Structure formats: C-alpha cells, structure tokens
Amino acid sequence: MLLGFKTELKMNKAQRIAFMKHCGVARHAWNWGLGLTKQILDHNKANPDSKIKFPTAIDLHKWLVALVKSENEWYYECSKSTPQQALMALREAWKRCFNKTAGVPKFKKKGKRDSFTLEGTVKILGSNKIQVPVIGILKTYERLPQVLTKSTTISRQADRWFISFRFDVEVQDLGNTGIVGVDLGVKSLATLSTGEVVLGAKSYKKYEDKLSRMQWLNRHKVLGSNNWKKAQMQIVRLHRKIANIRKDTLHKLTTMLAKSHGTIVIEDLNVSGMMANHKLAASIADMSFFEFRRQLTYKCELSGSKLVVVDRWFPSSKTCSNCGTKKQTLTLNERVFECGHCGFTIDRDLNAAMNLSKAVS
Q1: Mind listing the pLDDT tens digit for each residue in 9-55?
Q2: Which residue of the set 114, 119, 267, 286 is catalytic?
Q3: CB of 152 within 8 A of CB of 19?
Q4: What is the DSSP string of 40-83?
Q5: How many CB atoms are closer than 10 A to CB 98?
Q6: pTM surpassing 0.90?
Q7: Which residue from 60, 57, 58, 56 is spatially nearest to 68, judged by alpha carbons?
Q8: Is 286 known to be catalytic?
Q9: Is 349 a catalytic residue?
Q10: Catalytic residue among 114, 119, 286, 349
C-alpha cells in the first residue's frame, strides 16, 4: 500500500524565495483554470443548445502554455510540472464537485495554504537530503526513508516549510486476535471495552483564551503593515501548535489500537449532525473524530488488523451490556447507565464500548 511521509525542511534564503515563486505559479495556474472553467459552465448554462465541452487537465495545460505562459516570463523560472500539477488538482476538484462529494472549488489567496507539487527527478540522497527539479538539493531535520518516489509536494505552515511524498510499503500481519470496542466521546476522546480511558488533548480549549486575546489585540492594526504581519504570524503559529497537539494524541491512540488488537469496532458517527448542536460543536471539532477514523483506517490495513464500522443507529449506549435489555430513552446528562431489568450499573461510555465489542463476536 502507499504510505505518505511528511517532514520539515532546513532551508536558506534562496530556497525560500524559490518556494514562494513556485507557490505563486501554482496559485496563478489554479486561479486561471478555475476562472476559465467557471466561464465555460456559465456559458453552457445560458446556452444549452451550443455547449462547450468541459476541458480536461491536458486541455487546460495546452491552453495555459499557449495563452498564459508565453505572456508571463516568470513562469519559466519555475518547474514546468508545477502549473501542470495544479491544473490536474483543479480537474480532480471539479470531479468531486460533479460527483457531489465536495463543494465548488474556490480561488486561492496568497499566504493561505501555500503549496506546490514537483514531478520528475526526485532522488533521496543519503539520510537527510532530497533532490527535486529546478530547486536542487534540500536538507531535512529528520531522517528520510530510503525509497523511490517520482513526485513530491512542498507546503507551508506559518513560517515553516514541509516536504511530503508517497511510497510503497509492505503490509505486515502482526497476528493479533483480540477484539476491542471503541466509544468516542466529548468528555474523553475514547473509552475502550477493556476499561481503558484515553483523554483527548483538548488543545483548542486549552489555548482558546490565548488565541482570542491575540486576535483581539490585532483588531486595530493597519492591514498589511509590519506589525499586522507579525501578529498574523503569531496567530498562525498558535493554530499550528493546537493542530499538532491534537494530531499527536490521535496518532498515538490509533497506532496503539492498530498494533495491539486484531479487530477494532467503532461507530459510524454523524459528525455533521453532531456539529449542529452549537453547545457541543467546539468540543466535538476539538476531538477531530473524522481524523481519528481516517488514521485508524490506513493503520489497520498496514498492520493487518480489521476495522469494523457499526451502523450509526446501533443502540450501543441504550443497551445493557450485561443482559441486553434496551432502554427507550437516555439523555446526555446520564453519565452512568443503570439497567432497570437486571440492576446492572456501569459507566455510560464503557457500556457502549462493551456493546460495540460484542457486535462482531
């Protein structure tokens, strides 16, 4: 299976300038292609009898070379694969939009989610050097896997730059046979059927007041001034710190589950429906349930474990794990499950986790 690897780069000033140029080319190609495709869609909507064929990524790149690249010499300072890959990403974004799995693509803005993709001669040299087209040899802080790769993506988070690529790895069957149910929640990130409780990082809640004050102090600064840029960088760094703490907690939990159990059972949570509760929306977003499931999916495949996703209507919280009797109602305030049939008393989340583990046994 394909596994992604991402690490921070150690750069000099010239490389940082080259990165910004490549980001500008990728952003310009994306925005040009998006504007053109939107015009085509508007024309087809207004003129149903004389529709224009929606262009492929190859068509867009041919038009870019003929109409745009020849008029903008700074395109030639960057790798030719950068605008090509940006247009391929745009075509995939439109495909997801047409399949109704995502919304309409948006125009990109300078300084937000800057990234670009390079394809061609990408070689890993030694333990912490990688060679990419046009830019040359880049150094990393972390040891690089000694693998073969044809393309790589360089992205920016605040004032740091990262490089990422994918490579093939062999699936390892660890031979685990145990079954564990995992109940996700807001009070604690995960409650296992074994009785273990994993507390969430709650990094946003921890730094919410600090983030709010930094944004409040930035309210009257002149837009685009040096002080405004410094304040914006501090805010972005804090956002990155919050996200990194959350990701670290999720990676440790999902790795432990995938390597220690043969079958992991979770619920198919309706996260968008849960986010409609404005009193709990911030806490639910802080736990990042979708990211938990995404990580667990590929890590189970990598370690030979089995991930079972139970239907969201499965009454894991309302059912007694001792006798199987189902309650008609159970409010969010009831943190202890009390069975009216057998008198069994247990923590609500642990009861749900035990029911999930029994769903496949």
Answers
A1: 999 999 999 999 999 999 999 999 999 999 999 999 999 888 999 99
A2: 267
A3: no
A4: HHHHHHH-TTSPPPPP-HHHHHHHIIIIIITT-GGGGGS-THHH
A5: 10
A6: no
A7: 60
A8: no
A9: yes
A10: 349
